[in-house]
Amino acid sequence: METRSPHDPQAAATWTHDFGSPSGAGRAGAWAAVGAPALVLGASYVGFGAFVHQSGLTFFQAVASTTTGWALPGQIALIEIFAAGGSLLAAAIAVGLANARLMPMVVTLLPILREGETAPNPRLVHYLSAHFIALTGWAISMQRCPDMTPGQRLPYFLGFTLVIWCATLFCTALGFFLVGVLPPTVTLGLVILNPLYFMLLFTIDIVRRDRRWALLIGVVLGPLLHMITPEWGLLITGLGGGTLAFLITQYDRRRQLGRGK
Amino acid sequence: MTTISAWWFLLVGGLVTYGWRAAGVALSGRIDPNSALMRWVACVAYALLAGLIARLIVAPQGALGETALWMRLSSAGVALIVYFIFRRSIVLGVTAGALWLIAVTTLVGA
Q1: Contacts 24+ apart (CB under 8 A), B75-79
Q2: pLDDT tens, residue order, chain A (261 aa)
Q3: CA atoms of B54 and A222, how far apart (whole Å)
Q4: Alpha carbons A223 and A64: distance in angstroms, whole number
Q5: How far is it, in rounded angstroms, from Cα B95 to Cα A190?
Q6: Where in chain A are the domains?
Q7: Do residue B63 and residue A83 have CB atoms under 8 angstroms apart?
Q8: CB B54 to CB A222 under 8 A?
Q9: Which chain A residues touch B72 with a CB distance below 8 Å?
Q10: Which candidate in B9, B85, B87 is best for mutational testing of the A interface (most A CBs within 10 A)?
Q11: What is the three-state SS of A77-127?
Q12: From A61, A73, A187, residue closest to B49, measured CB to CB
């Protein structure tokens, strides 16, 4: 599987992963997704499916959310605001802010996937592939694709993300279905999976200087502003708290640079 | 009524989400993902998500909102403790927190 291309001396020098062909790379990506990535994300989406059911939406709405709006934080924000009786505008802005990070993620990953291409402008296939850029597939591809032969990276990425996307669709349906079957207390356990998961995920990020303030300010402001204005509380938390955190972080950076570090 | 408006929410949510991805494709190679603007965008997203998670634990909707606050807070506490004891294992932390909530709601009643 990791044979080097005999035709391209540069490949032998820099790219350590070659799958023989684009379809071989696609299969390798698909296999890499089976197991831990699909399982961990799958559990989250079982929790999401249960959450959607609990929020009073239908089965097809649960599956539609994962099909079209694939990026869990934005999906949770959307359903939560709908269930809390927020307006469509508030939901649109909250999803926009929660998922804004997808844009710089695509900006960083796409040049890696397109390396070796001669056409300067992105084509339809890139616009379609972008739908599958979400946290797990992005992190794995950022890590592994730079070592792969160009031309096999996009197939690898698609193989990987299509498997986890299908797994999340199945698990959304499963979670939704389980709510009617499992005892109510077990359902509560499913619904709290995602808040706990993201809480622990963010606990890791607290040590990162560039995210610490945003997380701490958000945790405090979120529930506080909810009591004052349930409809706009999250947006003010994001825009106001995020901007405050950004300013503190910038000040921090400058002080560090000033010290000659 | 409720069903129709939920579909509108999903449609708008899907369009907004894909909009960012398409913008990323169009802008790739033209903007610096580490610029100050992008760092501000990341700060806003993280603050909003941290607020959302805190709100989902402190003031959730639906059946979870009918449980006592101490149950949800202790569930988060158990998740954190297990996470740190077992060498930062997210899987074990989440599992323990969820099982704790199931146990207390079963024993005490939600």
Answers
A1: B75/A192, B75/A196, B75/B100, B75/B101, B75/B104, B76/A195, B76/A196, B76/A199, B79/A196, B79/A199, B79/A200
A2: 444 444 444 444 467 788 989 999 999 999 999 987 888 889 999 999 999 999 999 999 999 999 999 999 899 999 999 998 889 999 999 999 989 889 988 998 999 899 888 888 888 999 999 999 998 898 889 888 989 999 999 999 999 999 999 999 999 999 999 998 999 999 999 999 999 988 998 888 887 777 899 999 999 999 999 999 888 898 999 999 999 999 999 998 888 887 754
A3: 6
A4: 29
A5: 10
A6: 9-191, 206-261
A7: no
A8: yes
A9: 192
A10: B9
A11: HHHHHHHCCCCHHHHHHHHHHHHCCHHHHHHHHHHHHCCCCCCCCCCHHHH
A12: A73
Task: Decide if A219 and B54 are in contact by the 8 Å CB cutoff.
Answer: yes
Q: Count each helix (H run) and each strand (E run) in chain A, helices first.
A: 15, 0
The residue assigned the tokens 């939600």 is B110
- B61 backbone dihedrals φ, ψ, rounded to 5°: -95, 175
Burial classification of residue A243, based on how many CB atoms lie within 10 Å of its CB (0-12 exposed, 13-18 middle, 19 or more buried): middle
Q: What angle do CA A35, A163, A23 make, to 5 degrees?
A: 110
